[in-house]
Amino acid sequence: MSDSFQSIPGTFDILPHTQSTSADTVASTHAWQYVEETIRRVMHRHGVHEIRTPILEPTALIARGIGQLTDIVSKEMFAFERGSTQYVLRPEVTAPVMRAYLQHHLAQLGGVQRLYYIGPCFRAERPQKGRYRQFHQFGTEYIGADDARADAETILLAVDIYRELGLTDFTVRLNSLGTAASRTAYRTALQAYLRPLAGQLSETSRERLESNPLRILDTKSEAERGLLEGAPIMLDFIDEESAGHYGDVKKHLTAAGLAFEEDPFLVRGLDYYTRTAFEIDSPVLGAQTTLAGGGRYDLLAGEIGSKQDVPAVGFAAGMERLFLALESAGIELPKAGVPDVFVVTLGERAGDYAFPLMRAWRRAGLSTVYDLKGRSMKAQMREANRQEARCVVILGDAELDAGTAQLKHMDTGEQQSVALDDLTGILKTAYVPTPE
Ligand code: AMP
User: Fold this and answer.
1) Which of 58, 118, 278, 334 is 20 to 30 Å from 412 at the Cα level?
2) Ligand 1 pocket, 132 CB below 6 A?
3) Angle of helix 29-45 versus helix 319-328 axis, rounded to 10
4) Mean pLDDT by 10-residue block, N- to C-terminus, for the chain (436 residues)?
């Protein structure tokens, strides 16, 4: 064990079965596929189309797109240099999607581009439950949209995905950050309020006081939260138009029947956010409570080189966090699908006879499996049971001589002798699903 290779801490293999350790659970590929299909279905209902961008991006895109001073850029990027080019393994997908939108002139298609993604992201964080170095995000970006309905729809889309999966225990928190000017004014006011209290702040917060004071509002420390009680709040600084937009977002969410909490300290650390900011938290997640976060990022396109302003709004959600929440809520996820037919063969002649036959069954749509190790009849039957095959076909020399096979229907336990010539037809009738 000790001299064999292991996956890098903070990364994991996703296997056909669930892996549970005392520290963590990794859902099976079947569960992942089911969750991904659910996401795709809900996206489709909202007219949102998938975009796939590279894992590798130019470092400058990420550094400018998510702000030089964010933790992600300063400490958490997997970045490297080759020749004279700087590469980064994408830590998030919003900046790459906006890059693709600009690069391919998607604005020319007219209207709002409703895009979604599902895929891996990389951050060099200290691994812990719910926080990994390679993790997976799904999310959506509505690009070219300034209508408050887009903000509301983005939030409702995430909520619909969680509900469709059976998750009900989560909270939506909402705030508005106004425009760049209101953020600057707020930033100054917050600094003025916090500077006299600097001595009571943690070292990290003291550093942030000058570089990115809004991040201090995210603090988890009770003592710091206490200090923030009298702090100025963002909403008092936002301009009239942003206040109107915020009112509209709340109006649409209310009309949709969604309960949400207004959180004046919800800021999201990234500089390109304007107006709407939101987070979806799950109380069952423990230390890493955030399932998804998002908001409006009208300034991102300009940050990464667009001459035109491109209003946009979106969310990003963690897949692993979602699995943790589903597990805590006791929601059962699908396991491997069962085979339609398990073929038990005895001896080489039967094995050779069955081989092309099984191919025909597979082409007809029957999931057909067999034992590749030439084990005993008993071992093959045990395997058929373990895999919960819907029926078993038994073929040996005696059956071949008689031109028959034994067919056992596993739901009823009924076993019949069937003429080999009729076998394919019988299996198709009994086990190929009829199109609806
Ligand atoms: P962010 O881009 O930081 O707003 O992250 C969006 C979502 O991705 C979070 O709400 C989490 O659900 C998830 N997430 C972010 N970082 C990690 C990580 N290191 N490991 C697992 N999930 C993460």
Assistant:
1) 334
2) yes
3) 110
4) 84 93 88 98 98 96 73 81 94 96 96 97 92 96 97 98 96 94 91 92 89 85 89 93 97 98 84 89 80 95 93 97 94 92 96 96 96 94 96 95 96 95 95 78
